[in-house]
Amino acid sequence: MKVLGISPLDKDATASLVEDGAVLFAAAEERFSRRKQHAGFPRRAIAAALEATGTAPSEIDLVAYPFFDWPEEVELIERGLAAEAALHASHEIDVRPALRDALERIPDRQGEISGLSHPNQRMAKGRLKELAYAAAGTSPWLSDRVARRASRGWARAAAEAHRHWNRELVTSLEELGLSDKLRRYEHHLSHAANAHLASGFDRALILTLDGYGSGLSGSVSLGEGGEIHRLRDLLFPFSLGTYYEAVTSSLGYNPTRHGGKIVGLAAYGDPEVLGEILLSRFDRSIPGDLRMHQNLNLYFSRHLASHFPMVDVAAAYQWALEIIVAEIASHWAAESGCDAVVLSGGVVANVKMNQRIHEAEGIERIFVYPNMGDGGCGTGVALLETLAGGRGAPIEHAYHGPEYSEREIAAELEREGLAFTKVPNLAAEVAKRIHAGQVVARFDGRMEYGPRALGNRSILYHAREPHVNQWLNQRLGRTEFMPFAPVTLYEARERCYQRTTGAELAAQFMTITFDCTDWMGESCPAAVHVDGTARPQLIRREVNPGYYDIVHEYEKLSGIPCLINTSFNMHEEPIVCTPADAIRAFVRGNLDVMAIGPFLVEAPGSDS
Ligand SMILES: [Fe+2]
Fold first, then answer.
1. Of the four listed, 41, 208, 416, 428, which is most buried by Cβ atoms within 10 Å?
2. Environment class of residue 501 by beta-carbon count within 10 Å: exposed (0-12), middle (13-18) or buried (19+)?
3. Under DSSP, is residue 181 helix (H, G, I), strand (E, B) or coil?
4. What is the pLDDT of residues 9-37, one digit of tens each?
Protein backbone atom coordinates (compact mmCIF):
# COMPACT_ATOMS: atom_id res chain seq x y z
CA MET A 1 0.00 0.00 0.00
CA LYS A 2 1.37 3.40 -1.04
CA VAL A 3 0.40 6.44 1.00
CA LEU A 4 1.18 10.06 0.31
CA GLY A 5 1.46 11.89 3.63
CA ILE A 6 1.00 15.64 3.47
CA SER A 7 1.89 17.67 6.53
CA PRO A 8 -0.21 20.69 7.59
CA LEU A 9 -0.09 23.42 4.97
CA ASP A 10 0.19 26.34 7.40
CA LYS A 11 3.97 25.96 7.89
CA ASP A 12 6.83 23.69 6.86
CA ALA A 13 4.64 21.84 4.35
CA THR A 14 6.22 18.47 3.62
CA ALA A 15 5.43 15.49 1.40
CA SER A 16 6.22 11.88 2.30
CA LEU A 17 5.71 8.81 0.17
CA VAL A 18 5.46 5.70 2.32
CA GLU A 19 4.98 2.09 1.24
CA ASP A 20 4.36 -0.74 3.69
CA GLY A 21 6.02 1.05 6.60
CA ALA A 22 9.06 2.21 4.61
CA VAL A 23 9.64 5.88 3.80
CA LEU A 24 10.47 5.96 0.08
CA PHE A 25 10.86 9.72 -0.11
CA ALA A 26 10.24 12.68 2.19
CA ALA A 27 11.17 16.33 1.82
CA ALA A 28 9.94 19.75 2.80
CA GLU A 29 8.62 22.16 0.21
CA GLU A 30 10.93 24.91 1.54
CA ARG A 31 13.95 23.15 0.09
CA PHE A 32 12.53 23.44 -3.43
CA SER A 33 10.74 26.79 -3.15
CA ARG A 34 13.69 28.27 -1.18
CA ARG A 35 11.16 29.89 1.18
CA LYS A 36 11.92 28.98 4.80
CA GLN A 37 9.11 27.00 6.49
CA HIS A 38 7.06 27.19 3.27
CA ALA A 39 3.32 27.56 3.84
CA GLY A 40 1.02 26.14 1.15
CA PHE A 41 0.45 22.93 -0.77
CA PRO A 42 3.81 21.14 -1.24
CA ARG A 43 3.45 20.66 -5.01
CA ARG A 44 7.19 20.69 -5.76
CA ALA A 45 7.97 18.19 -3.00
CA ILE A 46 5.18 15.89 -4.24
CA ALA A 47 6.48 16.15 -7.82
CA ALA A 48 9.99 15.30 -6.57
CA ALA A 49 8.64 12.32 -4.61
CA LEU A 50 6.76 10.96 -7.61
CA GLU A 51 9.72 11.48 -9.94
CA ALA A 52 12.36 10.02 -7.60
CA THR A 53 10.29 6.88 -6.99
CA GLY A 54 8.83 6.55 -10.49
CA THR A 55 5.30 6.70 -9.10
CA ALA A 56 2.24 7.86 -11.03
CA PRO A 57 -0.45 9.70 -9.01
CA SER A 58 -2.87 6.89 -9.88
CA GLU A 59 -0.66 4.42 -7.96
CA ILE A 60 -1.24 6.29 -4.69
CA ASP A 61 -3.78 4.43 -2.57
CA LEU A 62 -4.38 7.08 0.02
CA VAL A 63 -3.54 10.70 0.86
CA ALA A 64 -3.11 11.15 4.63
CA TYR A 65 -3.52 14.61 6.19
CA PRO A 66 -2.97 15.27 9.91
CA PHE A 67 -5.80 17.70 10.66
CA PHE A 68 -9.56 17.28 10.73
CA ASP A 69 -11.80 19.29 8.45
CA TRP A 70 -12.07 22.89 9.65
CA PRO A 71 -15.53 22.84 11.32
CA GLU A 72 -14.39 19.94 13.47
CA GLU A 73 -11.13 21.70 14.39
CA VAL A 74 -13.14 24.78 15.39
CA GLU A 75 -15.37 22.67 17.64
CA LEU A 76 -12.31 21.18 19.33
CA ILE A 77 -10.79 24.62 19.95
CA GLU A 78 -14.00 25.61 21.76
CA ARG A 79 -13.61 22.65 24.14
CA GLY A 80 -10.16 23.96 25.20
CA LEU A 81 -11.40 27.52 25.60
CA ALA A 82 -14.12 26.31 27.96
CA ALA A 83 -11.52 24.50 30.07
CA GLU A 84 -9.41 27.65 30.18
CA ALA A 85 -12.39 29.78 31.25
CA ALA A 86 -13.09 27.36 34.11
CA LEU A 87 -9.47 27.61 35.28
CA HIS A 88 -9.51 31.42 35.05
CA ALA A 89 -12.66 31.56 37.16
CA SER A 90 -10.99 29.62 39.98
CA HIS A 91 -7.93 31.85 40.29
CA GLU A 92 -6.74 35.38 40.62
CA ILE A 93 -3.00 35.90 40.48
CA ASP A 94 -1.08 38.96 41.58
CA VAL A 95 2.54 38.47 40.54
CA ARG A 96 3.57 42.07 41.16
CA PRO A 97 5.06 41.65 44.67
CA ALA A 98 7.08 38.61 43.52
CA LEU A 99 8.33 40.55 40.49
CA ARG A 100 9.49 43.43 42.70
CA ASP A 101 11.49 40.94 44.80
CA ALA A 102 12.92 39.35 41.66
CA LEU A 103 14.45 42.66 40.57
CA GLU A 104 16.68 42.43 43.66
CA ARG A 105 18.00 39.05 42.56
CA ILE A 106 19.43 40.14 39.19
CA PRO A 107 23.13 39.28 39.25
CA ASP A 108 25.69 41.91 38.34
CA ARG A 109 27.24 40.35 35.24
CA GLN A 110 30.40 41.29 33.45
CA GLY A 111 32.09 39.54 30.54
CA GLU A 112 30.78 39.06 27.07
CA ILE A 113 27.98 37.07 25.47
CA SER A 114 28.44 37.05 21.73
CA GLY A 115 25.30 38.46 20.08
CA LEU A 116 24.30 40.64 23.08
CA SER A 117 25.43 44.21 23.64
CA HIS A 118 25.77 43.55 27.39
CA PRO A 119 25.37 40.32 29.40
CA ASN A 120 22.41 41.91 31.23
CA GLN A 121 20.85 43.33 28.07
CA ARG A 122 17.07 43.74 28.35
CA MET A 123 14.44 44.62 25.74
CA ALA A 124 14.09 48.32 26.55
CA LYS A 125 10.89 49.46 24.82
CA GLY A 126 10.30 52.95 26.18
CA ARG A 127 8.25 54.12 29.14
CA LEU A 128 4.86 54.10 27.45
CA LYS A 129 5.06 50.54 26.16
CA GLU A 130 6.50 49.32 29.43
CA LEU A 131 3.56 50.81 31.36
CA ALA A 132 1.15 49.08 28.98
CA TYR A 133 2.97 45.74 29.38
CA ALA A 134 2.87 46.06 33.17
CA ALA A 135 -0.85 46.81 33.25
CA ALA A 136 -1.99 44.27 30.66
CA GLY A 137 0.50 41.58 31.71
CA THR A 138 0.55 41.72 35.50
CA SER A 139 -2.44 43.56 37.00
CA PRO A 140 -4.80 40.77 38.15
CA TRP A 141 -8.05 42.27 36.89
CA LEU A 142 -6.78 43.43 33.50
CA SER A 143 -4.33 40.60 32.73
CA ASP A 144 -7.09 38.03 33.13
CA ARG A 145 -9.34 39.85 30.67
CA VAL A 146 -6.48 40.34 28.24
CA ALA A 147 -5.72 36.62 28.38
CA ARG A 148 -9.33 35.62 27.65
CA ARG A 149 -9.53 38.10 24.81
CA ALA A 150 -6.28 36.75 23.36
CA SER A 151 -7.63 33.18 23.48
CA ARG A 152 -10.83 34.19 21.70
CA GLY A 153 -8.84 36.15 19.11
CA TRP A 154 -6.56 33.19 18.56
CA ALA A 155 -9.57 30.91 18.03
CA ARG A 156 -11.08 33.24 15.42
CA ALA A 157 -7.80 33.48 13.52
CA ALA A 158 -7.30 29.71 13.70
CA ALA A 159 -10.78 29.03 12.33
CA GLU A 160 -10.09 31.29 9.37
CA ALA A 161 -6.67 29.71 8.78
CA HIS A 162 -8.10 26.18 8.88
CA ARG A 163 -10.78 27.13 6.38
CA HIS A 164 -8.18 28.71 4.09
CA TRP A 165 -5.70 25.82 4.13
CA ASN A 166 -8.47 23.28 3.78
CA ARG A 167 -9.62 24.95 0.58
CA GLU A 168 -6.08 24.93 -0.78
CA LEU A 169 -5.62 21.27 0.13
CA VAL A 170 -8.80 20.12 -1.57
CA THR A 171 -8.33 22.18 -4.75
CA SER A 172 -4.70 21.12 -5.11
CA LEU A 173 -5.56 17.45 -4.64
CA GLU A 174 -8.32 17.80 -7.24
CA GLU A 175 -5.73 19.05 -9.73
CA LEU A 176 -3.69 15.90 -9.09
CA GLY A 177 -6.80 13.68 -9.33
CA LEU A 178 -6.31 12.63 -5.70
CA SER A 179 -9.09 14.41 -3.79
CA ASP A 180 -11.21 11.26 -3.41
CA LYS A 181 -8.28 9.52 -1.71
CA LEU A 182 -7.98 12.06 1.10
CA ARG A 183 -8.27 10.83 4.69
CA ARG A 184 -7.91 13.07 7.73
CA TYR A 185 -6.45 12.27 11.12
CA GLU A 186 -6.23 13.81 14.55
CA HIS A 187 -3.10 15.94 14.66
CA HIS A 188 -1.52 14.52 17.82
CA LEU A 189 -2.09 10.97 16.66
CA SER A 190 0.17 11.81 13.72
CA HIS A 191 2.95 13.04 16.03
CA ALA A 192 2.48 10.02 18.30
CA ALA A 193 2.65 7.67 15.31
CA ASN A 194 5.94 8.94 13.93
CA ALA A 195 7.63 8.86 17.34
CA HIS A 196 6.43 5.40 18.30
CA LEU A 197 6.61 3.63 14.97
CA ALA A 198 10.12 4.90 14.18
CA SER A 199 11.51 4.19 17.66
CA GLY A 200 11.62 0.42 17.35
CA PHE A 201 10.54 0.21 21.02
CA ASP A 202 8.01 -2.56 21.74
CA ARG A 203 6.29 -0.65 24.48
CA ALA A 204 6.70 3.07 25.02
CA LEU A 205 5.12 6.05 26.66
CA ILE A 206 4.39 8.53 23.86
CA LEU A 207 4.51 12.21 24.70
CA THR A 208 3.60 14.78 22.05
CA LEU A 209 3.92 18.51 22.67
CA ASP A 210 3.38 21.38 20.25
CA GLY A 211 1.61 24.70 19.82
CA TYR A 212 -1.79 23.51 18.63
CA GLY A 213 -3.37 20.57 16.80
CA SER A 214 -6.94 19.22 16.73
CA GLY A 215 -7.94 20.98 19.94
CA LEU A 216 -4.82 19.88 21.78
CA SER A 217 -1.34 21.11 22.56
CA GLY A 218 -0.13 17.66 23.45
CA SER A 219 -1.03 14.11 24.28
CA VAL A 220 0.11 11.17 26.35
CA SER A 221 -0.34 7.70 24.91
CA LEU A 222 0.91 4.19 25.37
CA GLY A 223 2.40 2.48 22.35
CA GLU A 224 2.26 -1.30 22.37
CA GLY A 225 3.44 -3.07 19.25
CA GLY A 226 1.79 -1.10 16.45
CA GLU A 227 -1.12 0.06 18.61
CA ILE A 228 -1.43 3.52 20.15
CA HIS A 229 -3.75 4.03 23.14
CA ARG A 230 -4.43 7.57 24.32
CA LEU A 231 -4.01 8.10 28.07
CA ARG A 232 -4.51 11.85 28.33
CA ASP A 233 -5.36 14.79 26.08
CA LEU A 234 -3.44 17.97 26.88
CA LEU A 235 -5.85 20.74 25.93
CA PHE A 236 -5.10 23.93 24.02
CA PRO A 237 -4.75 26.82 25.02
CA PHE A 238 -2.66 25.30 27.81
CA SER A 239 0.23 24.99 25.38
CA LEU A 240 3.97 24.73 25.89
CA GLY A 241 4.43 25.61 22.22
CA THR A 242 2.76 29.00 22.56
CA TYR A 243 4.43 29.46 25.97
CA TYR A 244 7.86 29.16 24.36
CA GLU A 245 6.84 31.17 21.31
CA ALA A 246 5.82 34.02 23.64
CA VAL A 247 9.25 34.28 25.25
CA THR A 248 10.98 33.87 21.87
CA SER A 249 9.09 36.78 20.33
CA SER A 250 9.33 38.91 23.50
CA LEU A 251 13.11 38.55 23.36
CA GLY A 252 13.10 39.81 19.79
CA TYR A 253 13.27 36.60 17.75
CA ASN A 254 11.01 34.86 15.27
CA PRO A 255 8.61 32.85 17.45
CA THR A 256 8.19 29.89 15.11
CA ARG A 257 11.79 29.56 13.95
CA HIS A 258 14.13 30.76 16.69
CA GLY A 259 13.20 28.80 19.79
CA GLY A 260 16.69 27.26 19.69
CA LYS A 261 18.23 30.66 20.37
CA ILE A 262 16.31 30.88 23.65
CA VAL A 263 17.54 27.42 24.67
CA GLY A 264 21.09 28.61 24.03
CA LEU A 265 20.57 31.93 25.80
CA ALA A 266 19.01 30.24 28.84
CA ALA A 267 22.30 28.59 29.77
CA TYR A 268 23.82 32.02 30.49
CA GLY A 269 21.01 33.08 32.83
CA ASP A 270 20.04 32.34 36.41
CA PRO A 271 16.68 30.57 36.79
CA GLU A 272 16.52 31.71 40.42
CA VAL A 273 15.66 35.24 39.32
CA LEU A 274 12.27 34.45 37.72
CA GLY A 275 11.95 30.64 37.66
CA GLU A 276 9.46 30.26 40.55
CA ILE A 277 7.30 33.06 39.12
CA LEU A 278 7.09 31.21 35.81
CA LEU A 279 6.36 27.93 37.56
CA SER A 280 3.48 29.57 39.47
CA ARG A 281 1.76 30.14 36.10
CA PHE A 282 1.15 26.39 35.89
CA ASP A 283 -1.66 24.71 37.78
CA ARG A 284 -0.13 21.41 38.94
CA SER A 285 -3.10 20.19 40.95
CA ILE A 286 -3.93 17.37 38.52
CA PRO A 287 -0.86 15.10 38.19
CA GLY A 288 0.09 14.27 34.62
CA ASP A 289 -2.00 17.10 33.16
CA LEU A 290 -0.97 20.43 31.66
CA ARG A 291 -2.87 23.54 32.80
CA MET A 292 -1.64 27.11 32.68
CA HIS A 293 -2.85 30.53 33.73
CA GLN A 294 -3.19 33.28 31.13
CA ASN A 295 -1.05 31.43 28.63
CA LEU A 296 -1.87 33.55 25.59
CA ASN A 297 -1.36 36.86 27.39
CA LEU A 298 1.72 38.00 25.51
CA TYR A 299 2.07 41.15 27.64
CA PHE A 300 3.34 39.10 30.58
CA SER A 301 6.46 37.91 28.73
CA ARG A 302 6.82 41.37 27.17
CA HIS A 303 6.82 42.83 30.69
CA LEU A 304 9.49 40.38 31.89
CA ALA A 305 11.62 41.03 28.80
CA SER A 306 11.54 44.79 29.32
CA HIS A 307 12.49 44.66 33.01
CA PHE A 308 14.87 41.72 33.35
CA PRO A 309 18.03 40.57 31.57
CA MET A 310 17.24 38.50 28.46
CA VAL A 311 19.37 35.65 29.80
CA ASP A 312 17.37 35.43 33.06
CA VAL A 313 14.03 35.55 31.23
CA ALA A 314 15.17 32.76 28.89
CA ALA A 315 16.55 30.75 31.83
CA ALA A 316 13.26 30.98 33.73
CA TYR A 317 11.10 29.86 30.79
CA GLN A 318 13.45 26.97 30.07
CA TRP A 319 13.72 25.92 33.73
CA ALA A 320 9.96 25.87 34.30
CA LEU A 321 9.41 24.03 31.00
CA GLU A 322 11.88 21.32 31.99
CA ILE A 323 10.27 20.87 35.41
CA ILE A 324 6.73 20.63 34.04
CA VAL A 325 7.57 18.22 31.24
CA ALA A 326 9.78 15.99 33.40
CA GLU A 327 6.92 15.83 35.94
CA ILE A 328 4.40 14.80 33.28
CA ALA A 329 6.79 12.17 31.87
CA SER A 330 7.59 10.72 35.30
CA HIS A 331 3.93 10.62 36.31
CA TRP A 332 2.90 8.63 33.26
CA ALA A 333 5.99 6.41 33.38
CA ALA A 334 4.91 5.37 36.88
CA GLU A 335 1.24 4.98 35.86
CA SER A 336 2.03 2.85 32.82
CA GLY A 337 5.00 0.98 34.27
CA CYS A 338 6.93 1.97 31.17
CA ASP A 339 10.53 3.24 31.34
CA ALA A 340 10.83 4.12 27.63
CA VAL A 341 9.53 7.44 26.33
CA VAL A 342 9.22 8.61 22.74
CA LEU A 343 8.70 12.25 21.81
CA SER A 344 7.33 14.29 18.94
CA GLY A 345 5.86 17.76 18.31
CA GLY A 346 7.48 21.16 17.82
CA VAL A 347 8.27 21.60 21.53
CA VAL A 348 10.58 18.57 21.52
CA ALA A 349 12.97 20.42 19.20
CA ASN A 350 14.16 21.66 22.61
CA VAL A 351 17.25 19.46 22.99
CA LYS A 352 17.91 20.53 26.57
CA MET A 353 14.38 19.65 27.68
CA ASN A 354 14.85 16.24 26.11
CA GLN A 355 17.96 15.69 28.23
CA ARG A 356 15.90 16.47 31.36
CA ILE A 357 13.23 13.98 30.28
CA HIS A 358 15.91 11.32 29.79
CA GLU A 359 17.18 12.07 33.30
CA ALA A 360 13.66 12.18 34.85
CA GLU A 361 12.62 9.66 37.45
CA GLY A 362 11.42 6.40 35.95
CA ILE A 363 12.77 7.09 32.43
CA GLU A 364 15.59 4.90 31.12
CA ARG A 365 15.21 5.02 27.34
CA ILE A 366 14.28 7.90 25.07
CA PHE A 367 13.69 8.47 21.38
CA VAL A 368 12.87 11.74 19.63
CA TYR A 369 11.47 11.69 16.09
CA PRO A 370 14.04 13.50 13.89
CA ASN A 371 11.39 15.57 12.10
CA MET A 372 9.59 16.39 15.33
CA GLY A 373 7.68 19.46 14.13
CA ASP A 374 4.63 19.46 11.88
CA GLY A 375 6.81 18.58 8.88
CA GLY A 376 6.88 15.02 10.28
CA CYS A 377 3.11 14.64 10.72
CA GLY A 378 2.33 13.45 7.19
CA THR A 379 4.95 10.74 7.59
CA GLY A 380 3.43 9.74 10.94
CA VAL A 381 -0.04 9.07 9.57
CA ALA A 382 1.38 7.44 6.43
CA LEU A 383 3.38 5.02 8.62
CA LEU A 384 0.33 4.33 10.76
CA GLU A 385 -1.82 3.59 7.72
CA THR A 386 0.66 1.39 5.85
CA LEU A 387 1.69 -0.59 8.93
CA ALA A 388 -1.99 -1.16 9.81
CA GLY A 389 -1.35 -2.11 13.42
CA GLY A 390 1.99 -3.76 12.69
CA ARG A 391 5.18 -2.76 14.48
CA GLY A 392 7.53 -0.27 12.88
CA ALA A 393 11.25 -0.90 12.47
CA PRO A 394 13.67 1.49 14.19
CA ILE A 395 14.52 4.40 11.91
CA GLU A 396 17.96 3.91 10.35
CA HIS A 397 18.55 7.33 8.86
CA ALA A 398 16.81 10.52 7.77
CA TYR A 399 18.27 10.72 4.24
CA HIS A 400 14.88 10.62 2.52
CA GLY A 401 15.22 13.58 0.14
CA PRO A 402 16.43 13.96 -3.45
CA GLU A 403 19.94 13.10 -4.67
CA TYR A 404 21.87 14.19 -7.75
CA SER A 405 24.12 12.20 -10.05
CA GLU A 406 27.83 12.83 -10.67
CA ARG A 407 26.89 14.02 -14.15
CA GLU A 408 24.34 16.54 -12.87
CA ILE A 409 26.81 17.89 -10.31
CA ALA A 410 29.64 18.21 -12.87
CA ALA A 411 27.33 20.00 -15.31
CA GLU A 412 26.32 22.53 -12.66
CA LEU A 413 29.93 23.19 -11.62
CA GLU A 414 30.89 23.74 -15.25
CA ARG A 415 27.96 26.08 -15.78
CA GLU A 416 29.14 28.19 -12.84
CA GLY A 417 32.74 28.13 -14.10
CA LEU A 418 34.14 26.50 -10.95
CA ALA A 419 37.26 24.31 -11.20
CA PHE A 420 36.84 20.87 -9.68
CA THR A 421 38.87 17.69 -9.33
CA LYS A 422 37.93 14.12 -8.66
CA VAL A 423 39.93 13.01 -5.65
CA PRO A 424 40.66 9.29 -5.12
CA ASN A 425 40.33 9.27 -1.32
CA LEU A 426 37.99 12.17 -0.78
CA ALA A 427 37.37 11.48 2.94
CA ALA A 428 41.11 11.55 3.73
CA GLU A 429 41.60 14.73 1.72
CA VAL A 430 38.65 16.47 3.44
CA ALA A 431 39.97 15.39 6.85
CA LYS A 432 43.40 16.77 5.97
CA ARG A 433 41.91 20.12 4.95
CA ILE A 434 39.87 20.35 8.16
CA HIS A 435 42.89 19.43 10.25
CA ALA A 436 44.76 22.27 8.53
CA GLY A 437 42.03 24.73 9.58
CA GLN A 438 39.88 24.96 6.44
CA VAL A 439 36.08 25.27 6.48
CA VAL A 440 34.62 22.51 4.31
CA ALA A 441 31.12 22.33 2.84
CA ARG A 442 29.88 18.81 2.15
CA PHE A 443 27.13 17.97 -0.35
CA ASP A 444 26.53 14.31 -1.07
CA GLY A 445 23.83 11.66 -1.35
CA ARG A 446 20.19 12.09 -0.43
CA MET A 447 19.13 15.27 1.36
CA GLU A 448 18.18 15.07 5.03
CA TYR A 449 14.51 15.12 5.97
CA GLY A 450 13.75 17.30 9.00
CA PRO A 451 15.29 20.44 10.43
CA ARG A 452 18.87 19.24 10.96
CA ALA A 453 21.70 18.83 8.50
CA LEU A 454 23.16 15.41 9.22
CA GLY A 455 26.24 15.38 7.02
CA ASN A 456 24.88 15.34 3.47
CA ARG A 457 24.19 19.09 3.36
CA SER A 458 26.63 20.23 6.08
CA ILE A 459 29.50 22.57 6.82
CA LEU A 460 32.34 20.92 8.73
CA TYR A 461 35.16 22.37 10.80
CA HIS A 462 37.39 21.17 13.62
CA ALA A 463 36.08 21.62 17.17
CA ARG A 464 39.35 22.70 18.79
CA GLU A 465 38.78 26.43 18.46
CA PRO A 466 36.39 28.00 21.03
CA HIS A 467 35.86 31.24 19.06
CA VAL A 468 34.75 29.60 15.83
CA ASN A 469 31.11 30.19 16.87
CA GLN A 470 31.53 33.93 16.54
CA TRP A 471 33.43 34.21 13.27
CA LEU A 472 31.85 31.34 11.36
CA ASN A 473 28.32 32.33 12.39
CA GLN A 474 29.12 35.88 11.34
CA ARG A 475 30.34 34.64 7.97
CA LEU A 476 27.15 32.62 7.56
CA GLY A 477 25.02 35.57 8.69
CA ARG A 478 23.68 33.91 11.86
CA THR A 479 23.39 34.73 15.56
CA GLU A 480 23.50 31.65 17.74
CA PHE A 481 23.88 31.34 21.49
CA MET A 482 24.40 27.61 21.36
CA PRO A 483 27.69 26.28 20.05
CA PHE A 484 27.84 24.23 16.87
CA ALA A 485 26.81 20.62 17.26
CA PRO A 486 29.50 17.95 17.07
CA VAL A 487 29.35 14.90 14.83
CA THR A 488 30.99 12.10 16.80
CA LEU A 489 31.98 8.56 15.88
CA TYR A 490 29.41 6.24 17.46
CA GLU A 491 32.16 4.12 19.02
CA ALA A 492 33.60 7.17 20.83
CA ARG A 493 30.33 8.26 22.49
CA GLU A 494 31.33 7.32 26.03
CA ARG A 495 34.66 9.09 25.75
CA CYS A 496 32.82 12.31 24.90
CA TYR A 497 29.41 12.27 26.64
CA GLN A 498 27.84 11.11 29.86
CA ARG A 499 24.78 8.89 30.14
CA THR A 500 24.19 8.14 26.48
CA THR A 501 22.84 4.70 27.38
CA GLY A 502 19.19 4.49 26.40
CA ALA A 503 19.47 7.51 24.11
CA GLU A 504 21.72 6.05 21.41
CA LEU A 505 19.13 6.25 18.63
CA ALA A 506 17.96 9.77 19.58
CA ALA A 507 21.59 10.93 19.56
CA GLN A 508 22.03 9.89 15.92
CA PHE A 509 19.73 12.74 14.92
CA MET A 510 21.02 15.61 17.09
CA THR A 511 17.82 15.71 19.13
CA ILE A 512 19.15 15.61 22.70
CA THR A 513 21.95 17.15 24.74
CA PHE A 514 24.29 15.32 27.11
CA ASP A 515 26.69 16.49 29.77
CA CYS A 516 30.17 16.31 28.28
CA THR A 517 33.12 14.49 29.77
CA ASP A 518 36.15 16.50 30.90
CA TRP A 519 38.04 15.09 27.93
CA MET A 520 35.40 16.47 25.53
CA GLY A 521 35.48 19.89 27.22
CA GLU A 522 39.22 20.10 26.77
CA SER A 523 39.44 18.62 23.26
CA CYS A 524 36.38 20.11 21.58
CA PRO A 525 35.64 23.49 23.23
CA ALA A 526 33.85 24.72 20.09
CA ALA A 527 31.12 22.13 20.60
CA VAL A 528 30.54 22.46 24.34
CA HIS A 529 28.06 25.00 25.69
CA VAL A 530 28.63 27.21 28.73
CA ASP A 531 26.60 24.72 30.82
CA GLY A 532 28.92 21.85 29.83
CA THR A 533 26.48 20.17 27.42
CA ALA A 534 26.61 19.32 23.72
CA ARG A 535 24.00 18.02 21.24
CA PRO A 536 25.85 15.47 19.19
CA GLN A 537 25.12 13.53 16.07
CA LEU A 538 26.51 10.06 16.70
CA ILE A 539 27.48 8.55 13.38
CA ARG A 540 27.71 4.84 12.52
CA ARG A 541 29.57 3.77 9.40
CA GLU A 542 26.73 1.67 8.01
CA VAL A 543 24.45 4.73 8.06
CA ASN A 544 26.63 7.06 6.02
CA PRO A 545 30.10 5.68 5.12
CA GLY A 546 31.37 8.76 3.21
CA TYR A 547 30.57 11.05 6.13
CA TYR A 548 31.76 8.63 8.80
CA ASP A 549 35.07 8.19 6.99
CA ILE A 550 35.79 11.92 7.13
CA VAL A 551 35.45 11.96 10.93
CA HIS A 552 37.41 8.71 11.17
CA GLU A 553 40.26 10.02 8.99
CA TYR A 554 40.27 13.21 11.04
CA GLU A 555 40.58 11.16 14.22
CA LYS A 556 43.65 9.44 12.73
CA LEU A 557 45.27 12.86 12.24
CA SER A 558 44.21 14.55 15.47
CA GLY A 559 43.18 11.88 17.98
CA ILE A 560 39.76 13.60 18.16
CA PRO A 561 36.65 11.63 17.03
CA CYS A 562 34.48 14.76 16.56
CA LEU A 563 33.98 17.62 14.13
CA ILE A 564 31.54 20.46 14.28
CA ASN A 565 28.66 20.08 11.86
CA THR A 566 26.41 22.98 10.96
CA SER A 567 23.78 23.23 8.26
CA PHE A 568 24.86 24.17 4.76
CA ASN A 569 22.83 27.30 4.08
CA MET A 570 23.15 31.02 4.22
CA HIS A 571 21.40 33.32 6.69
CA GLU A 572 17.69 32.50 7.04
CA GLU A 573 17.68 30.43 3.86
CA PRO A 574 16.57 26.82 3.89
CA ILE A 575 19.32 24.19 3.84
CA VAL A 576 20.64 23.70 0.29
CA CYS A 577 18.87 21.10 -1.84
CA THR A 578 20.35 21.05 -5.35
CA PRO A 579 23.95 21.36 -6.59
CA ALA A 580 23.07 24.87 -7.79
CA ASP A 581 21.93 25.87 -4.28
CA ALA A 582 25.14 24.42 -2.84
CA ILE A 583 27.37 26.32 -5.26
CA ARG A 584 25.58 29.59 -4.53
CA ALA A 585 25.88 29.15 -0.74
CA PHE A 586 29.51 28.02 -1.04
CA VAL A 587 30.54 31.11 -2.95
CA ARG A 588 28.50 33.56 -0.84
CA GLY A 589 29.67 32.04 2.45
CA ASN A 590 33.36 32.41 1.61
CA LEU A 591 33.94 28.80 2.58
CA ASP A 592 37.39 27.36 1.80
CA VAL A 593 36.55 24.18 0.01
CA MET A 594 33.51 22.12 -1.01
CA ALA A 595 33.29 18.34 -1.28
CA ILE A 596 30.39 17.86 -3.68
CA GLY A 597 29.61 14.33 -4.86
CA PRO A 598 32.98 12.81 -5.74
CA PHE A 599 34.53 16.23 -6.45
CA LEU A 600 36.60 18.71 -4.52
CA VAL A 601 36.07 22.39 -5.34
CA GLU A 602 38.38 25.14 -4.15
CA ALA A 603 36.91 28.53 -3.29
CA PRO A 604 37.13 30.88 -6.28
CA GLY A 605 40.28 32.98 -5.94
CA SER A 606 42.04 30.59 -3.55
CA ASP A 607 45.53 29.38 -4.47
CA SER A 608 45.37 25.95 -2.73
FE1 LIG B 1 2.07 19.70 15.67
1. 208
2. exposed
3. helix
4. 999 999 999 999 999 999 999 999 999 99
Instruction: Find the domain containing 469 and state its range.
Output: 406-602
Domain shared by 362 and 426, yes or no: no
Same domain, 412 and 542: yes
Q: Which residues, chain by chain, have CB under 5 Å from ion ligand 1?
A: 210, 213, 374
Q: Is there a contact between 322 and 279 (Cβ–Cβ < 8 Å)?
A: no
**Residues written for the chain:** 608
Q: How far is CA 138 from CA 80, 152, 272, 277, 447, in A?
A: 23, 19, 19, 12, 47
Give a three-class secondary structure readout of 527-565: HCCCCCEECCEEECCCCCHHHHHHHHHHHHHHCCCEEEE
CA of 429 to the centre of ligand 1 (A): 42
438, amino acid identity: Q
Beta carbons within 10 angstroms of residue 92's beta carbon: 11
CATH of the domain at 530: 3.90.870.20
Instruction: Pick the last residue of a domain from 342, 368, 394.
Output: 368
Q: Write out pLDDT tens, residues 521-576.
A: 999 999 999 999 999 999 999 999 999 999 999 999 999 999 999 999 987 899 99
The neighbouring-strand residues paired with 537 are: 487
Cα of 122 from ligand 1 centre, angstroms: 31
Q: How many domains is the chain partitioned into structurally?
A: 2
C-alpha of residue 287 to centroid of ligand 1, in Å = 23
pTM for the full predicted model: 0.96
Beta strand residue intervals within 275-418, DSSP E: 340-344, 365-368
| Residue (of 310, 368, 356, 378) closest to 118 by Cα position | 310
Give the C-alpha distances (Å, rounded to integers) separating 242 from 211, 213, 259: 5, 12, 11
**205 part of a folded domain:** no
Q: Could you write out the DSSP letters of every residue in 558-595?
A: HS--EEEEEES--TTSPPP-SHHHHHHHHHHTT-SEEE
